[in-house]
Amino acid sequence: MVCSALRRVAHMHVYLVRKASSVSKGHHHHQALGSRPAASEFAARRAPGSVVELLGKSYPQDNYSNLSQKVLSRVGRNLHNQQHHPLWLIKERVKEHFYKQYVGRFGTPMFSVYDDLSPVVTTWQNFDSLLIPPDHPSRKKGDNYYLNGNHMLRAHTSAHQWDLLHAGLDAFLVVGDVYRRDQIDFQHYPVFHQLEGVRLFSKHELFAGIKDGESLQLFEQSSRSAYKQETHTMEATKLIEFDLKQTLIRLVTHIFGDELDIRWVDCYFPFTHPSYEMEINFHGEWLEVLGCGVMEQQLVNSAGAQDRIGWAFGLGLERLAMILYDIPDIRLFWSEDERFLKQFRVSDINQKVKFQPLSKYPAVINDISFWLPSENYTENDFYDLVRTVGGDLVEKVDLIDKFEHPKTFHLSKPQDVAASFLDDVRTHKTSHCYRITYRHMERTLSQREVGHIHQAVQEAAVQLLGVEGRF
Questions:
Q1: Quick one: DSSP state of residue 344?
Q2: Residue 190 and residue 177: Cα distance in Å, rounded?
Q3: What global pTM score does this model have?
Q4: What is the DSSP annotation of 375-403?
Q5: Cα distance between residue 315 and residue 90, in whole Å
Q6: Which of 438, 442, 439 is nearest to 335 (CA)?
Q7: DSSP 3-state assignment of 450?
Q8: 186 bridge partner residues
Q9: What is the pLDDT of residues 286-305, one digit of tens each?
Q10: How distant is the alpha carbon of residue 265 from its chain centre?
Q11: CA distances in angstroms from 50 to 41, 62, 285, listed in the order given
């Protein structure tokens, strides 16, 4: 199976270039949304031994490499740094809030901001530095975009935490594009943007103003519980937790306004404990807007800040912008349609903006069914293939049916044992049926042009994922 998988990878580039050429004939109108497959769309997916160029550096490919040119084309766009883009507005509002609320001893901002760090990181930065175990499911190739076994596109801005702490920083914000293989719907896109916040406290800083604070300690040796780490005192943990939650309540109040209902939900992250998610009640619906927690002391210690304790939080810019500006589809953030962009050209970043929807063009829906290969198939592989072939024309993909063929045995004669075993292997198979919704953001699609794209999806699934078509 390994050899056959490698052969499929080796043939991937040639096959999809050939399909791209045939699909693109006669369809010259939807290139603006990246929907027309072209030779360059798949150039990054090559056999081990080739090299991909990204941001001025070369990365040798190996069996871990799984980037499509579609995803690579998004690297360097930096929507969060494009003036008057809705993601830029959210970033600037958060920056302004932290600059004004938290000022250092000399009147300068306490928090430094890093919004242009390279999205290419090592697997050590993305996982090991954050204490993520080697067998943790978040490392799966099916969930991440790897350049090779050692380098990847960051899955979170937390990948820079250790480096910045090690450089001696104790209060900072990191903003950037992050990359994850995921399902396809109006809330998910393989590239989105995060904002990370970290703050460390010394004993003096944390206990200043606390009665008898001089006698309190940051650290102790005890046992871990649901409420604290084994190295933290309960007093230090509660003060850090209080400061973190008050900081974030002030932030979301600044963004969404007063009289906001907020609740905290206990959760788990490998790099914080205790950990929480914040949910806000917006228009009668509880929405999760960020994750946070007390930083794992092992992480802080390894970065050289053994005498400090800290908190960290992370939020998604798209999530906040979709809620705040009432933007219904995450694909819109990548639109270059002037009707979308002009709505956010405001003189004051705090000015209220309510997105006025563009004309919603009708959807074209097609289903695809196939038998899964016996191994090495993940749903994210299929979603990534659909996104690569269909581009931003694909609004969502739903798994609408699973069917498992029953085992059958026909052992009337002993000599039939081998044959029946092979029959069993053939018949005990699983089928998936996906419904793909195609919709252009700027014009009406015809069933004919979608049909060409859908056929390319079908043929690519057979050739590249090893499925057996039922179409």
A1: G
A2: 10
A3: 0.83
A4: SS--HHHHHHHHHHHHGGGEEEEEEEEEE
A5: 11
A6: 442
A7: helix
A8: none
A9: 989 999 999 999 999 999 99
A10: 21
A11: 16, 8, 49
